[in-house]
Amino acid sequence: MTDTTPSEQSPRGYGMQVGYRTLSIRVERKTPKSPPDPADAIASIDVHLLSVDEVYTRYSTHPTVGLEIAVVQLRERDGKNVISPPPTVYWKKTLNYIFGGFNFLMWIAFILTILSYKPLGPPQAFVLGVAVLLLLVIVISSAFYALVDWNASRIMKSIKSLIAHEAAVIRDGKQQTIQASDIVVGDVVVLNAGDRVPADMRVVQSSSDLRFDRSLLTGESS
């Protein structure tokens, strides 16, 4: 950006000299020091409350032109359009299998049984048998919790394989097919019958008979 200011007037007949001063503006894109809490990020979503024109304005996009390549390159710094699994802390999961849920009550019963082994009189085989039985229940219950968790993880991995791998977007006025993981915020995505939705999106234009099959998420038969 330049700021043009007139210099001192020269003698009559020689006109006016114009001096130029350059003003430099530095624009920095600040990134948060720590990632936002997912719950807060979801609660702050208000795109569904905006009008279509407000959506285009907020994300600097256009229904027929889409995003400019320069904007796409800038927003690619936010990361890929993929599901990021939470970090797995195995020792915490193991402790939860052993001491969590119903097992917590079993441990209390086991400790009380051990403490009552001698104070109530001579050692009795029945009390010791109850303690062993409770410990066996804890082991079986822990194994069951681990099996359920492993099965849930396996199902989630199979669901990820059903996610769309490619998507049709409009960029610089041209429709092109890209990897679904390369979609950025503000992309205008074109969906046809039978296509899988590649990301969380706001519908801005559709046919009157638009329908979505959500059986994969709800478990209901389509």
> What's the SSE pattern?
EEHHHHHHEEEH
Distance between the termini: 58 Å
Shape: elongated
The number of helical elements comes to: 7
**Radius of gyration of CA atoms, rounded to a whole number:** 32 Å
Structural class: alpha+beta
Total count of strands: 5
Low-confidence stretches: 1-11
- Strand line-up of the largest beta sheet: 4-3-5
The amount of beta strand, in percent, is: 5-15%
Helix content: 25-40%
Describe the structure.
It is a single chain. This protein is of the alpha+beta class and 222 residues long. It has helices at 38-43, 52-58, 69-75, 90-99, 102-115, 125-160, 215-218; strands at residues 2-6, 18-22, 166-171, 174-179, 188-190. Among the domains are: 60-78 and 164-202, no CATH class; 100-160. The chain contains 7 helices and 5 strands. The strands form 2 sheets. A 3-stranded antiparallel beta sheet has the order 4-3-5, with no helix packed on it. Strands 1-2 form a two-stranded antiparallel ribbon. β3 (166-171) and β4 form a beta hairpin. The protein starts with a strand and ends with a helix.
Topology:
Elements: E1 2-6, E2 18-22, H1 38-43, H2 52-58, H3 69-75, H4 90-99, H5 102-115, H6 125-160, E3 166-171, E4 174-179, E5 188-190, H7 215-218
Antiparallel strand pairs: 1-2, 3-4, 3-5
Helix pairs in contact: 4-6, 5-6
